[in-house]
Amino acid sequence: LSLSQQPRHIRTLQTLSTTPKMSQGSPKAPVVAEAHEVDTYHPPKKMFAKHPSKPHLSGLEEYQKLYKESITQPDKFWGRLARELLTWHRDFQTVRSGSLVNGDVAWFLEGEINASYNCVDRHAFADPNRVAIIYEADEPTDGRSVTYGELLREVSRVAHVLKAMGVRKGDTVAIYLPMIPEAVVALMACARIGAIHSVVFAGFSADSLRDRVLDARCKVVITTDEGKRGGKLIGTKKIVDEALKQCPEVKHVLVYKRTGADIPMTPGRDLWWHEEVQKYPNYIPPEPMNSEDPLFLLYTSGSTGKPKGVMHTTGGYLVGAAATGKYVFDIHPGDRYFCGGDVGWITGHTYVVYAPLLLGVTTVVFEGTPAYPNFSRYWDIIEKHGVTQFYVAPTALRLLKRAGDQFVKGDFNKHLRVLGSVGEPIAAEVWKWYFEVVGKEEAQVVDTYWQTETGSHVIAPLAGVTPTKPGSASLPFFGIEPAIIDPVSGEEIHGNDVEGVLAFKQPWPSMARTVWGAHKRYMETYLNVYKGYYFTGDGAGRDHEGFYWIRGRVDDVVNVSGHRLSTAEIEAALIEHPIIAEAAVVGVADELTGQAVNAFVSIKEGHEASDALRKEFILQVRRSIGPFAAPKAVYIVPDLPKTRSGKIMRRILRKVLAGEEDQLGDVTTLSDPSVVGRIIDVVREAR
Ligand code: 6R9
Q1: CA pair distance 352, 349, nearest whole angstrom
Q2: I need a labelling partner for 306 at 20 to 30 A (CA). Which of 82, 213, 444, 609 fits?
Q3: Residue nearest to atom 5 of ligand 1 (CA)
Q4: What is the model's pLDDT at position 687?
Q5: How many angstroms separate the alpha carbon of residue 121 from the centre of ligand 1?
Q6: How far, in Å, from the CA of 381 to the mean position of ligand 1?
Q7: What confidence score (pLDDT) does residue 671 get?
């Protein structure tokens, strides 16, 4: 079978075999063998001593009982939880309909609900002075708090402003904001009037913003004059202006004054937030939405060049957010919860905004970086606010671990019960450092596996309940029925001690319903790869005790510092450069960022490879996508390794970068096998 004839999912095996985990030790030993040797950690006793009451479940047995119910009687299980956790404007009758095969999954039909009512009003009525948001500004001294009462007023006013700008139920609003309380307000204001929010991470370039605004046909954009992060200013409004040059449908831009910078305002189009909100009353009734009405779009990278607008609906998403927040993070009334994620990514949506607000606790909105003004920033925040749950990506932990334990100081652990990890696999040493040095063995580490598309945690321990093993995301959340599939045969592999690709057998409430304007692509990417299953795109193992070990992506997605990037998207950005003839991008293991982007390019006749040119190519990606996608290295090569049918064999490039030239595998299908030697020379010379 030549590579070009193989089914798409066969690439899996090649990619898997280049992940760092698999290439360690004896190549023949099954990977799951490692799992047998690792220690099991039980929820630490001291965690219970700090607990305001006790975890929601009595222990693993209760989890197992409920889990079984969630799989065998999902309607009963989810119907109960949906009514328990949320306030419905109108009750639902049908818990679930549709199937993974048909791609028409729907939850809580006939039900009517409003997300902002559930996140804000309920708590504002019960206890208006309870703190909803602790804003930790970039400068430690600039922060403030927002109570639920204040939040309701501000959300209502902004909802009025949006209506006055012509936003109607079902319209999409683009949000390009840094991590400030107004980002939460903006999401809630959209949800309140039934508008769909589409947050674009404020690190994306003007071109990326433009593409997303156009794809979702947004008529309004919400932004700031500038952003401030790690002591540096970010020209958000300038980027919006640049993007909107090519977005004729955008009628208004609402600008929140963050720094007071002197910025141009386009008359008739741009309006100041602080001026507009003054014009309106501080209450507006929430719009009752059908459970399956869209709540938001969030663009994410896939295996093709064009980002996908992943669509989440209202009822199901909210149930997933509230249920996982409650059980995985063991959230209880009065908790002060801190997730370091950005609202521009799914982690920020579900676990900075929705989960804590649905549960009526205090959420920390952090504008800065873990390194500013110094490496103690997280621990200072945790101490200052008596944080109970902390949630961050391993990339930040690696940075802080490397900076040195002397920065992990202060009496910050007093209330800390849960330490969450998300976005990428966490290495056992980093897990242990998190548990021992940060948590002082008094808090439980929960490694949570999920995706933009899953909406909320799908494989994760329940704090205070599930035993954990460093490096394993442990057991499935309620309603999630994982399957390990053999990527070659496409068959499910039953039993324990198995390895393959990860899929789910049943629909769950918070799963994405479609890709905006591209349902066919949704079906092809997630539901048609293995019929009857949702395909995650990740490789995974299930060990002898049924614990899951996520191995990483098996498609053309790279994970840099927990940011999900598409190699195809970066290649498309490179090709835009007039000198570049062809480009191939691969992810390589990186000590600090997990994976790093490396690019191989061939250049057009009449140009010479140089450092200046390499820099220019890196700049091209920064400009086209955003700084976070910039390649760490660019190799200018005479040609790329291609099959006779013209398919670039990235596997060879990955092997060369890993120094595994002796394991290139079959290169006879290459149209010109001699290019490999020349590529090896370029890489050696560069190092
Ligand atoms: C939440 C989020 C999803 C991809 C996913 C996987 C990787 C996320 C992980 C993890 C190992 C974990 N991933 N959590 N890998 N262990 N605990 O990150 O969403 O940006 O869509 O990325 O991230 O590869 O497929 P998203």
Answers
A1: 6
A2: 609
A3: 451
A4: 85
A5: 32
A6: 25
A7: 81
* Structure-token pair, residue 315: 């009822």
User: SS3 of 585, please?
Assistant: strand
Query: Residue 163: which H helix or E strand, with range?
Result: helix 148-164
Residue 373: cis peptide before it, omega within 30 degrees of 0: yes
The model's pLDDT over 277-292, given as tens digits with 9 standing for 90+, comes to 999 999 999 999 999 9
DSSP-derived letter for residue 351 is: I
- What pLDDT sits at residue 510? 98
Contact (CB, 8 A) for 463 and 325? no
In sequence order, which ranges of 236-391 are alpha helices (DSSP H)?
236-244, 273-277, 314-328, 346-348, 355-358, 377-385
Packing angle of the helix pair 74-85, 314-328 (nearest 10 deg): 80
**How far does the centroid of ligand 1 lie from the alpha carbon of residue 449, in Å?**
6
Give CA angle at 625 (245, 4), nearest 5°: 125
451, 502, 535, 549, best to mutate for ligand 1 pocket (most atoms within 8 Å of CB): 451
Q: Report CA-CA distances (Å) from 250 to 174, 511, 570.
A: 10, 30, 27
Q: What is the C-alpha end-to-end distance of the chain, expressed in Å?
A: 35
Report the distance separating Cα 406 and Cα 48, nearest Å: 27
Angle at 376 between CA 134 and CA 412, to 5 degrees: 65
Q: Say if CB 416 and CB 388 are below 8 A apart.
A: yes
Segments of the chain with pLDDT less than 50: 1-36
User: From the CA of 368, how far away is ligand 1's center (Å)?
Assistant: 22
Tell me which residue has its CA closest to atom 4 in ligand 1: 451
Give me 272's structure tokens: 């100041």
Q: Which two tokens stand for residue 498?
A: 């198995």
Instruction: Please tell me the distance from the alpha carbon of residue 43 to that of residue 474, in angstroms, as a whole number.
Output: 13
What is the maximum span of the chain, computed from C-alpha positions, in angstroms? Answer: 72
3-class DSSP state of 634: strand
Write down the pLDDT at residue 13. 34
**Residue 251 CA, ligand 1 centroid: distance in Å:** 36
Collapsed DSSP state (helix, strand, coil) of residue 511: coil
What is the SS3 assignment for 664?
coil
What's the one-letter identity of residue 432? K
Atom of ligand 1 nearest to the CA of 426: 16
Atom number, ligand 1, closest to the C-alpha of residue 300: 21
Atom of ligand 1 nearest to the CA of 460: 17
* ipTM surpasses cut 0.90: yes
Looking at residue 19, its pLDDT comes to 35
User: What's the pLDDT at 37?
Assistant: 61
Residue 646 is predicted with a pLDDT of 74
Q: How close is the Cα of 299 to the center of ligand 1, in Å?
A: 15
- Residues whose beta carbon lies within 6 Å of some atom of ligand 1: 300, 345-347, 422-425, 447-452, 473, 536-538, 550, 552-553, 559, 564
Report in angstroms the alpha-carbon separations of 108 from 89, 320, 657. Answer: 12, 12, 50
Instruction: Report the separation in Å between the CA atom of 424 and the middle of ligand 1, taken as the mean of its atom positions.
Output: 5
With 0.95 as the threshold, say if the pTM is over it. Answer: no
Q: Is the distance from CB of 290 to CB of 314 less than 8 angstroms? A: yes
Strand partners, 583: 601
Q: To test ligand 1's pocket by mutation, which of 468, 538, 553, 560 has the most ligand atoms within 8 angstroms of CB? A: 538
